[in-house]
Amino acid sequence: xxxxxxxxxxxxxxxxxxxxxxxxxxxxxxxxxxxxxxxxxxxxxxxxxxxxxxxxxxxxxxxxxxxxxxxxxxxxxxxxxxxxxxxxxxxxxxxxxxxxxxxxxxxxxxxxxxxxxxxxxxxxxxxxxxxxxxxxxxxxxxxxxxxxxxxxxxxxxxxxxxxxxxxxxxxxxxxxxxxxxxxxxxxxxxxxxxxxxxxxxxxxxxx
Amino acid sequence: xxxxxxxxxxxxxxxxxxxxxxxxxxxxxxxxxxxxxxxxxxxxxxxxxxxxxxxxxxxxxxxxxxxxxxxxxxxxxxxxxxxxxxxxxxxxxxxxxxxxxxxxxxxxxxxxxxxxxxxxxxxxxxxxxxxxxxxxxxxxxxxxxxxxxxxxxxxxxxxxxxxxxxxxxxxxxxxxxxxxxxxxxxxxxxxxxxxxxxxxxxxxxxx
Amino acid sequence: xxxxxxxxxxxxxxxxxxxxxxxxxxxxxxxxxxxxxxxxxxxxxxxxxxxxxxxxxxxxxxxxxxxxxxxxxxxxxxxxxxxxxxxxxxxxxxxxxxxxxxxxxxxxxxxxxxxxxxxxxxxxxxxxxxxxxxxxxxxxxxxxxxxxxxxxxxxxxxxxxxxxxxxxxxxxxxxxxxxxxxxxxxxxxxxxxxxxxxxxxxxxxxx
Amino acid sequence: xxxxxxxxxxxxxxxxxxxxxxxxxxxxxxxxxxxxxxxxxxxxxxxxxxxxxxxxxxxxxxxxxxxxxxxxxxxxxxxxxxxxxxxxxxxxxxxxxxxxxxxxxxxxxxxxxxxxxxxxxxxxxxxxxxxxxxxxxxxxxxxxxxxxxxxxxxxxxxxxxxxxxxxxxxxxxxxxxxxxxxxxxxxxxxxxxxxxxxxxxxxxxxx
DNA sequence: AATGAATGAGTGTTCATTCAT
DNA sequence: AATGAATGAACACTCATTCAT
Lengths: 207, 207, 207, 207
Known about the structure:
The structure is a homotetramer. The first copy, chain A, has helices at 18-34, 41-47, 55-58, 62-86, 91-109, 111-118, 127-147, 157-169, 171-174, 182-194. By secondary structure, chain A is mostly helical. Chain A has a domain at 63-194: Tetracycline Repressor, domain 2. Chain A binds a DNA duplex through residues 14, 19, 40-42, 50-58, 61-62.
């Protein structure tokens, strides 16, 4: 988690944006563990052996740190999902691969991606809009994935996407490391959607 | 605001715990609007025309207020869901009615219920465990509702429940008042599950 | 200076706005001695045996304290000047009495009035405008006093007022307690204006 | 901005202490505009495209910068006043010329000179005494100018000087660029002193 | 049942200054 | 001659909480 032990290759060279990255790692972890408001700049600084004031050399405010974490998290999860999707070729397989990658990033791989799900942006802040924008931008992928499916006439693609994304994202509430791995979770959920669950003959339609 | 069946007896002492209820209403609203950490005791007190110190006559701490809001919210949503479910008699209809009631409480009816979804419990606090407990207790209903369904052999009832609950709860992220009403949302999502979405002949099973 | 030892008359009764007044006294003194920016809220609090946060029960911000000091100072000096002026009846005597009272308040009597002269209002703040307004309002008195004089035709009343006020106010730079008292200073300065200083016969006019 | 006669010689090393002068110019401007305490070293550095730490190659502290600004401002205004005075030959004309030059420097020409009037020296600092010393030294000129006047017997030369200097210096409070130019202001004020203002026959003397 | 006044720890942020490079 | 990075102390201000009245 959070590549802190970055095997400092050669000499003791203080690499370029060394500390900024460390700070971001620490912020991502603390934001995820405790939430944005409860985490103080002092907490973050202490984590990397700095004083709180020193953070401001690297970031101009706490909100800007959150934004940076969001952006980094988004870049990361988007890459993973895109790669996973590209490796498959039938629509359902591509969707499932995307879901699996999404879940893996969310549940296991990185603090950054979890922040995106768990931290609701600070209300009044000017960053709030930007954060929601980033999230939308990312989720657009799933719109494409769902649109590519060959569905029966009446199926509502929009709610299919929302149901699936919600089901996946909510996993942070009930998931625990010992349980089914992300791939299994994603597979099972998609399976439920692909097959007919209602065994009664009458079509479930009219309200 | 928010039902709170305060059996208001006829006689001279009509408002047994008047102010406590007002405080709780204010807290629920502010917790929902701004989040738990951003809302201050002063904010809550001001809302009912009190000074912040006076709250402590009614509640022993801010966390205890959150707990009370959770409990009240839970009692409320549980009542609504139970009533809605009782009015139907086929398993799928009962599930859908439960989902509709759940969504309505979540999105439209009461600040109390929304707090349950939007406010993640304060980390270190001793209440955190209790809050999760309450939530589990409530969701147990849906376990029952799903278990009552007549499903095909391979269907995973646990993930069906988690997918559905997640899909519903995540709605607070994308829902906006002008859009489809809760009943429509619930209906559409359940519809997606009941019917076969995969039009290909081969069973979607092997991974 | 600054009526701190207010012979706490009867019992130990914590009189009504006791502490607010103490705080204001301390603020006035420190603002005068060190200037606004250099004085910290901690300094002010320490002076009255409080913690810095406690000030905010009485004042909502540091700027508001400054405003309160200005207002109090202004009320005070205006009262003194008005009373002194009212006791005389020829125009020159009234002007001189006003100047004496102004100087006394400025140099000897109260921290509050000195703040008005020595502290230039914090630039960006919203109070700046209000403070200048108060100052103008006060100085209007002198406009009246000068207008009442029976002057030769060419005399510029506006610059007479500005010269006099400037001469008086600048005294805080060179005044020291052992020297001439305010009454003497005011008398000498006015004297210089009343009499003809230029002994040459030609009128000092054309430039 | 601000004359600073930096005799820029032709050859290859044109800018003997280029950056130091730029820094001083920036400091003078900011000190005048915002005041000493409100101006940060970062502000000054940014103005010349430097980092704040780099200033310390040129100046050993912020206070030293202020001292340098004072000194430069003083040298400048003294030169202007001396030149203006030298061009006249009657005592009153010399005084008026000096006042005009003083006002011009103060109100229009240079940030450096304005700092001398507007910035009150930081209290505790060791520079405070030195700054006052410089100011006295400069004002000594006006002592000479006043002493050269042929005045009536009772006229108090000291207060004449203080009244005049105060009246001039206080102009920074009420002066605004569109109004009368410095020459007019100085002329009017001196005029008021030269002529007899009190039209009553009795000498204004006894206290 | 509530107020007025305060506490004490903590908040995000700013600052003059330092120093190895 | 200047940078990049950091320090450590300070800043104005906020907060949940307490308690005598």
